[in-house]
Amino acid sequence: MTAPQIDHRIGAAAVTVLDTEGRPLSHRDVVVEQRAHAFSFGNIGFELIPMANGEAGPSTANAGLWFDVFNTATLPFYWGPFEPERGRPGTERLRRTAEWFAAHGCRVKGHPLVWHTLTADWLRDRPADEVEAAVRARIRRETADFAGVIQAWDVVNEAVIMPVFRNERHRNAITRLAWERGRLALIRLAFTEARAAGPAVTLLLNDFDMSPAYECLIEGVLEAGVPVDAIGLQSHMHQGYWGEERTLATIERFARFGLPIHFTETTLLSGELMPSHIEDLNDYQVPSWPSTPDGEQRQADEIVRHYRTLLSHPAVHAITYWGLSDNDAWLGAPCGLIRADGTPKPAYEALRGLIKGEWWLPPTTMRTDAAGHVEVRGFYGEYRLSAAGRAASFPVTLPRTDVSLRLQGS
């Protein structure tokens, strides 16, 4: 199979290297290396929250595996667990976690601000006006408390099903509010409150429903002037890999809105697939769901195909894989990139081979010409050039650009 083309992710920088006095560094060996990807390669950071807070948690090795591949962490803001008692949110613990990821050079995303599942139970029987006021206050509080450290929010999650969601064991106020006020009104108020966090924060509308119903909802939201910055598409492939054709067709359907597309929740299994007749993935409950050798090879092949396909489409700006390890994996499925014993699966190595191998410029020695020029070509991101104990950083953000670097340090 021919690999999809991703040349639109690659740029070139014509770099003029200057010494500390501002003179061209002629005919000198310099070392250029990539330091970061501009593209958002994400994963959830849930299982690293204890480590970020100095608590007992996953091994340092797991954290090392996380940071060796991913550059964007999604953190959980499910209203019920985040604020089980009204007025006592878990802000401090998650703020420390967000700052910890940022200190490791990662971007941070919050998920979600408004969702009918796992919402605050103490709102369940309150009047609609009180529920709306609480939703507004919750959004203002979280976006203010995490300003400057969270760069993106899933503002409204799974709005297509929200007004008609039924779960007798867990009646919730958000579904009732969406039913009484309408999807559009709820989405508008949520995004209006979140936008107050500032123009630099990316606000997403996110859903698992890839049917025309989601397209219709997006059309209405955009026609109403709601400030949506990006469209979130979930791709939990517990029943099998979508394949290139379906994936690209899905992207095309949503790319027509002219907004960046984020694949916000992606999983591929390394064990037995969920039966195709299951409509709600949450309904599939099995006592054991192991990873298997054959499944692991399949997962490794499919994750390479999936990431190549997503990067081949210019509309896709971010991918978040949903879970590092099989410990505490969603639905107990073998969808992690690391086994329960902490050892990497072939899929982890395959993905790392793309992000930090094929799509990465390792330390490379180049020689400047008489004018101190070198040309650097690589994936959009941050780069570092060093020579004789001095260094300077520069971005590659355009198909071709001119850069002048004065080396600093000793």
From TrEMBL:
Question: SMART domains attached here?
Answer: Glyco_10
Protein name as it appears in the record? Beta-xylanase
Give the E.C. number(s). 3.2.1.8
Which keywords, in A-to-Z order, does the entry hold?
Carbohydrate metabolism, Glycosidase, Hydrolase, Polysaccharide degradation, Signal, Xylan degradation
Residues of the GH10 domain: 54-354
Q: Which GO terms describe its molecular function?
A: endo-1,4-beta-xylanase activity
Q: Which family does it belong to?
A: Belongs to the glycosyl hydrolase 10 (cellulase F) family.
Q: Which PROSITE patterns match?
A: GH10_2 (PS51760)
Annotated organism of origin: Paractinoplanes abujensis
